[in-house]
Automatic annotation (TrEMBL):
Pfam families the UniProt entry points to: Phytase-like
Entry keyword annotation includes Oxidoreductase: no
Signal peptide, first to last residue: 1-18
Residue ranges occupied by any Phytase-like domain in the UniProt entry: 40-188
Taxonomic superkingdom: Bacteria
Protein name from the UniProt record: Esterase-like activity of phytase family protein
Length: 328
């Protein structure tokens, strides 16, 4: 009887993976090692104008234009000066741990994502400061005056509570009027702010989505359980796309609520023996979406994968059958 009760209890807390249909696998079209990012740690991607741009969470004073004219891409640095960051309502303990981490590894601002609007403005999300830096193409960088209520609402919903599990992704609409941020894990979620009359504000609340729980990793990684997460965010055709590194998938979500509509897996291509990294390294951190496919950036932390490649890598996946708007 005790064994039966134990089995029933275990079944009640484990996700029902057996009932989840297999996801369509995205096809890898090409992959490109990135040279010129001396600190490595590619953490964000966005298509801006005529090129793909990247950021590193180890660099507080530059972003990178990726020259794709050769199979091995060259990262061309563009420098900027970030003014002092705003003090958002994060606990002193979280802010101090972020400061110490910056001293040890570099990257006090810990830029984890990049997005662009139609005017060419680049937006960099700082995980350590829970803030967003705007880098115009021909003006000084400046921090957005985001509402403090955004952080308070996120924390009240269970997000932004743990060190190194704060803001991990950013997306903006072409008009520069709606800005979304992704909270990484424990709990993960989506936030949105609106630009109205030269002011960023929460309209009807800044929290779109907040969820916890665990899910299984792909079979190639042993199927172990880990917290659900977001590691990248993109906006395309009025939809949000989330990069979910633990599950090795990309999901399409509504921009209004963050509800998931459909997901696609990239596990089959990412987890070949040649592309596998030591455990806990080589994770998908960056996402950009266009009509023809997805760009996924891999943060290798300076570690070599199975074939010996030790530079950051960008994968190009083709769009799924029927396009990103497909319903089934």
């Amino acid at each position: 009887m005790r064994q039966l009760l134990g089995a029933l209890l275990l079944a009640s807390v484990m996700p029902a993976f057996a009932d989840t249909p297999a996801l369509e696998e995205l096809k890898l079209l090409s992959e490109h090692p990135v040279a010129g990012m001396d600190t490595g740690n590619l953490s964000g991607l966005a298509w801006c104008g005529d090129a793909l741009w990247a950021v590193s969470d180890r660099d507080d004073d530059r972003l990178y234009r990726l020259d794709a004219s050769a199979p091995i891409w060259q990262a061309e640095a563009e420098s900027f000066v970030a003014p002092p960051a705003p003090v958002m309502p994060l606990p002193w303990g979280l802010r101090m741990r972020a400061w110490v981490s910056g001293l040890v590894r570099g990257g006090h601002l810990d830029f984890e994502g990049i997005a662009c609007d139609a005017k060419g403005n680049r937006y960099l999300v700082s995980e350590s400061r829970a803030a967003v830096l705007q880098v115009p193409p021909a003006a000084d960088a400046q921090w957005l005056a985001l509402p403090e209520g955004m952080v308070r609402q996120a924390r009240a919903s269970g997000m932004l509570l743990h060190f190194n599990s704060l803001l991990e992704g950013i997306a903006i609409d072409p008009a520069g009027e709606r800005l979304w941020l992704a909270a990484e894990k424990e709990r993960r979620g989506l936030l949105v702010v609106h630009h109205r009359n030269a002011t960023w504000r929460c309209e009807g609340g800044c929290v779109l989505l907040s969820e916890g729980g665990q899910e299984q990793s792909p079979a190639a990684l042993g199927g172990s359980l880990a917290p659900v997460d977001f590691s990248g965010l993109a906006f395309h055709q009025d939809k949000l796309f989330t990069l979910e590194r633990q599950a090795h998938r990309i999901c399409r979500r509504t921009a209004e609520s963050g509800d998931v509509e459909r997901c696609w897996s990239f596990a089959a291509e990412a987890l070949t023996d040649e592309r596998r990294y030591p455990l806990h390294y080589g994770v998908a951190e960056a996402l950009a979406i266009d009509a023809d496919g997805a760009w996924v950036g891999v943060d290798n932390g300076g570690h070599a994968r199975g074939d010996g490649e030790n530079r950051p890598v960008v994968w190009r996946f083709t769009a799924p059958a029927g396009g990103w708007g497909a319903t089934q």
